[in-house]
Amino acid sequence: MGQLVECVLNFSEGRDKERIQAIAGVLSSFTEVHLLDCSSDADHHRSVLTFLGVPEAVLNGALSVFQEAIHDIDMNYHKGVHPRIGAVDVVPFVPLRGVSMRDCVQLARRFGKVVSDSHSIPTFLYGEAAVKRERKDLANIRRGQFEGLRKSLSGDPEKGPDFGPARPHPTAGACAVGARDLLIAFNIYLNTTELRVAQEVARAVRESSGGLPHVRALGLFLESRGQVQVSMNLTNFKTTSLYSVYEEVGREALKRGALIAGSEIVGLVPKEALEAGDYRTLMIEDYSSGLTLEERYYQVTGRRW
Are 135 and 112 in contact (CB under 8 A)? Predict the structure, then answer.
């Protein structure tokens, strides 16, 4: 069995379909890279590419996507409800098969050095690739977002990037690149327009506020739906499952007079995460078997995991 590494690259365009397709399309020139999913959201104004392959090809594919995106996206005109610091906001490398976390750390650091040297873009290392302890958590890097970069980078040398200049790129901002295990991006919609409700529920369930282990959560209002959303990342689904998160969000929402209206998976989910219960209870919108990483890999490559 060969090596497989996954990259889940997030870039700050979720509305212009032609632009999104052009950015994702650069991966088609890499024969050893397989694009499994491109998820876009207009309210978040963000797209997520899930692609995998042999390490060197994935690294080169990510560099090509980066170059296309920063030429296409001007952060001075970007508005969305999801936190972000740059045109290419976050680039995680994930070990899947025959690849160690240390290998992915090296990929992340190589990526960060290349893009900062080539494009004068400040790059921060996070997750397992972090050099500074406080940067292990991506939220600490994105605090203040793109608009606060200039002040944060110029005010304290300790807050400077791991690679690149201590000033944001004038249009592309900055980038966070890291190495991590499999993560599930899981959003739950509530049947209310009250942002306060979503924010309180998010605070109740996220780990940093004393909630569920390995859960990061934000409360957001989605104008296109006229609903609020509890937007979450599950960083260890084996410890805290999709099902336990869904139940806890439901309980906390009910305390505030709201009900769950549906949920969504952003990108792909490991098959094991859904097998922990009955997926129908999660009210996942647009569910299909191709939502799992393993099945989508088979659909794209014709090979089993």
Answer: no
At position 66, the amino acid (one-letter code) is: F
For the segment 44-65, the average pLDDT, to the nearest whole number, is 98
**In which domain, by residue range, is 76 found?**
4-179
Interatomic CA distance for residues 87 and 70, integer angstroms: 6
Residue 1 — pLDDT band, cuts 50, 70, 90?
low
CA distance 40 to 45: 8
Could you tell me the sign of the dihedral formed by the alpha carbons of 14, 17, 19, 20, in that order? Answer: positive
Is 34 a residue of the active site? no
- From the candidates 34, 82, 119, 214, which is the catalytic residue? 82
Which of 132, 157, 179 is the last residue in one of the domains?
A: 179
Report how many domains make up the chain: 2
Global pTM reads 0.95
| Last residue within a domain, chosen from 155, 179, 203 | 179
Q: Per the structure block, which two tokens stand in for 283?
A: 């009210």
How confident is the model over 229-257, as pLDDT tens digits?
Answer: 999 999 999 999 999 999 999 999 999 99
What is the predicted pLDDT for the residue at 277?
A: 95
Task: Measure the CA–CA gap between 187 and 167, rounded to whole angstroms.
Answer: 33
The first and second tokens of residue 91, run together, are 């680039």
